[in-house]
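Tokens as discussed.
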């Protein structure tokens, strides 16, 4: 459905069908001013807490707040420091404390305005305060628009590892305004593009072409829409990641090892990009040396010279998994658009690299 609102503003709705947990992803270019009226259709409570970070607040807190106030909400805000270090239990408890002091009730709403850090953190707050209050995701990074804001995984990091304290909790609404990407720093673009390459390989169609032509910026609304739609269709079939949703881990088995090897200095999306290249090479060997040149060429267009020793990365993976299992479930590629999950023993897995 494509609706013209005002001159030049395009609006699109993607439905995520999850029974009583269903929600819409609204793509509304240049439309942050419409968040308030969208929320009015969905929730009864009149209190809203916007959680955002210091970088995003500079540009988008005021217009979002105005939109919500004009729609009749009493709006509070909490601006946290930018970056992964804010995704921790003490910031989580500070936010819970704010909700408690403001006497938020079940019908009230937390709005996450920002990248995946804000989305995961504020999402976990909304998931757990009073056993769950309304959550709205307003993603502003490319990674959050195409991946983290959709699907309901929320949580914080613990000293023992990333995302160890969390929940599955679906938002009431995801509101995407791709115009907010105009202020995203270049390195964060590249971070989002790493996840974009994953969708290009899973989809194999228009998303592959857009990325292969290196024309994401020129087709931004369509690109974000197609990625969001791809994720929504998978989440609908497998909300709690028991099977199909694992396809979204394409490139992540090695990607996680690369992140770890870099002491988490390499952005997630960059690590996934390298992980994709390695798994493509391995997929070729696994399937009798099938030709995946087009797929590998696509990844190479985004500077994919892997900065680590591959054997070392593979040992890191098998050592990590030894405690829980003697095999590895990884996602492999037959061709762009044809990916599958396969269980291999450590020995079989190692031989592929
Ligand atoms: N829940 C999920 O399914 C899921 C999936 C993938 C990743 N994640 C999580 O997402 C997080 C990473 O998300 P991220 O890459 O968005 O990181 P992030 O939230 O730290 O954002 C990246 C940087 O960009 C800035 N920024 C965001 N939007 C901006 C804008 N429009 N203009 C200017 N600056 C802007 C932020 O302030 C930050 O400095 C990780 O914690 C990861 O674990 C979650
Ligand atoms: Zn990822």
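Sequence:
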């Amino acid at each position: 459905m494509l609706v013209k609102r005002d001159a030049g503003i395009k609006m699109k709705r993607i439905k995520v069908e999850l029974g009583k947990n269903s929600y819409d992803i609204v793509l509304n270019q240049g439309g942050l001013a419409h968040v308030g009226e969208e929320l009015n259709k969905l929730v009864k409570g009149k209190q809203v807490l916007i959680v955002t970070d210091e970088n995003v607040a500079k540009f988008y807190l005021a217009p979002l707040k105005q939109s919500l106030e004009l729609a009749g909400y009493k709006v509070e805000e909490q601006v946290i420091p930018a970056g992964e270090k804010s995704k921790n239990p003490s910031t989580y408890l500070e936010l819970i404390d704010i909700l408690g002091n403001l006497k938020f009730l079940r019908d009230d709403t937390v709005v996450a305005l920002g990248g995946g850090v804000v989305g995961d953190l504020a999402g976990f707050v909304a998931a757990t305060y009073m056993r769950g209050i309304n959550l709205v995701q307003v993603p502003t990074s490319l990674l959050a628009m195409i991946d983290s804001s959709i699907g309901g995984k929320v949580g914080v990091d613990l000293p023992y590892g990333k995302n160890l304290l969390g929940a599955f909790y679906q938002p009431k609404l995801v509101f995407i305004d791709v115009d907010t990407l105009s202020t995203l720093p270049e390195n964060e673009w590249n971070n989002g593009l790493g996840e974009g390459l994953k969708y290009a390989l899973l989809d194999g169609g228009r998303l592959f072409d857009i990325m292969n032509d290196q024309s994401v910026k020129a087709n931004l609304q369509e690109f974000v829409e197609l990625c969001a739609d791809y994720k929504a269709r998978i989440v609908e079939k497998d909300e709690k990641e028991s099977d199909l949703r694992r396809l979204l881990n394409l490139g992540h088995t090695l990607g996680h090892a690369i992140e770890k090897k870099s002491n988490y200095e390499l952005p997630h999306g960059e690590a996934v990009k390298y992980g994709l290249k390695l798994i493509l090479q391995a997929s070729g060997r696994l399937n009798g040396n099938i030709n995946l040149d087009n797929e590998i060429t696509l990844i190479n267009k985004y500077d994919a010279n892997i900065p680590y020793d591959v054997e070392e990365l593979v040992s890191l993976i098998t050592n990590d998994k030894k405690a829980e299992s003697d095999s590895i479930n990884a996602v492999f590629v037959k061709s762009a658009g044809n990916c599958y999950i396969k269980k291999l023993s450590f020995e079989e897995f190692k031989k592929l690299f």
